[in-house]
Amino acid sequence: MRGLVHKYGGTSVATPEKIKNVAKRIIREKEKGLDMVVVVSAMGKTTDHLVELAGQISQHPDERELDLLLSTGEQVSIALLTMALQEEGYEAISLTGFQAGIKTVGPHTKNKIIDIDIDKVKDYLAEGKIVIVAGFQGMNELGEITTLGRGGSDTTAVALAAKLSFPCHIYTDVEGIYSVDPRLYKPAKKLEVISYEEMMEMASLGAGVMEPRSILIGQKYKVPIYVASSMNQEKGTYIKEYDGTMEEKVVTGLSVCDDILMVTISQIPDAAENMALIFDKLAARHVNVDMISQAASFEGLLSVSFTAKVEDRGAVQAVMDELDPQYHVCMESEISKLSVVGMGMRNQSGVSGRLFRILSDHKIPFRQVTTSEISISYAIDRLDKERAVAILSQELNL
Ligand code: ASP
Ligand code: MG
Questions:
Q1: Each residue of 320-348: pLDDT tens digit?
Q2: For a substitution probing ligand 1, which of 136, 168, 172, 213 has the most ligand atoms within 8 Å of its CB?
Q3: Which of 82, 84, 319, 379 is 20–30 Å from 258 (CA)?
Q4: Angle between helices 272-284 and 313-322 (to 10 degrees)
């Protein structure tokens, strides 16, 4: 079977006109002889409105009921898109997550796909139908309707593509993946291709084009992914396995993450046990600690800094309140994290030297640095963010 999965986000199906436009795009592929499976999100801001609606009834709505409510958004868009295709004279059928065989596990509102009973989708394809599947939803082992977490339609699309061994095209309101968020740096270049690893790193570090979990699935099952605009025919970005040709470029992108909380604890008596205790307590409260740096001990006292998300501030504060009162704690929230990402860093030295030089020459102070195999991240004051993004982007030719 030669086929393709298309996915359209909420803005691409926001109005009846846009839904008709999407139908035309699907037909163009169908006419090439491809079996088409299409995943759609809810129209426009429907899901946000449903969340708000629940909030007007209850401060803490039951999550099973929330799943039932939120899953209705996609049910509207799949039916309308199917009608649009039928109106153009094509055979099409819409399927909810459950009808498409999408099996999930986990807590309500945060389910994960574990498998897909793909036979039904395949049968409809064999009958020549275009199959339209509701994104973001599935069914758990109890037969309950579940959702996959906000932005989960990307995951539905890539998982279906994996199961069918089809490529996956993600159509959205941006024209592809940029080296830097164009809202932060106008001249940012659109990337022709990016590896799964880089995309994962960019996505989880803040570049919000795709849901990070979908990229993990893509990587695991080697699904070729293509991200482009649903509004025009401009060339988008391929996300695929790393190959040597991408190597010429050492740095692929710069991702920026705001809302970082930086915590510095000093006056800690120098003993490994004291560090263990602090981070055990943070873990117990599910604080996702990111960058950690410890200064060399001075006169028997240590200091350590770490970053977390601002949203975890309450939990971090609770841990700090439990610490020995002789420790000195400082919490700052006006911090951004800039991460320079590139597969080429794996086997080329000198990138960190170059970055430190750029920051030093332009007198951009940084508070913390961490590295992974393919990235270097700096925590900087929010006030320096714009300037740092512009300078690094220029210097690195992003
Ligand atoms: N409609 C859902 C949301 O807004 C899922 C998605 O768009 O991917 O989060
Ligand atoms: Mg989305």
A1: 999 999 999 999 999 999 999 998 888 88
A2: 136
A3: 319
A4: 140
């991200």: which residue's tokens? 227
Ligand nearest to the CA of 49: 1
Going from N- to C-terminal start, the domains of the chain cover 3-173, 255-395
Residues pairing with 145 in the sheet: 139
| 155, burial (CB in 10 Å: exposed 0-12, middle 13-18, buried 19+) | buried
Pocket test for ligand 1, best of 150, 170, 230 (most atoms within 8 A of CB): 150
Domains 3-173 and 255-395 share a fold: no
Question: pLDDT tens-digit profile of 343-391?
Answer: 888 888 889 899 999 999 999 999 999 988 999 999 999 999 999 999 9
3-173 classified as CATH 3.40.1160.10: yes
- CATH 3.30.2130.10 for domain 255-395: yes
Return the ∠ at Cα 50 (arms to 49 and 55), rounded to 5°: 95
> 194-214: buried (b, 16+ CB within 10 Å) or exposed (e) per residue?
bbbbbbbbbbebbbebbbbbb
Q: Which atom of ligand 1 is nearest to the CA of 211?
A: 8
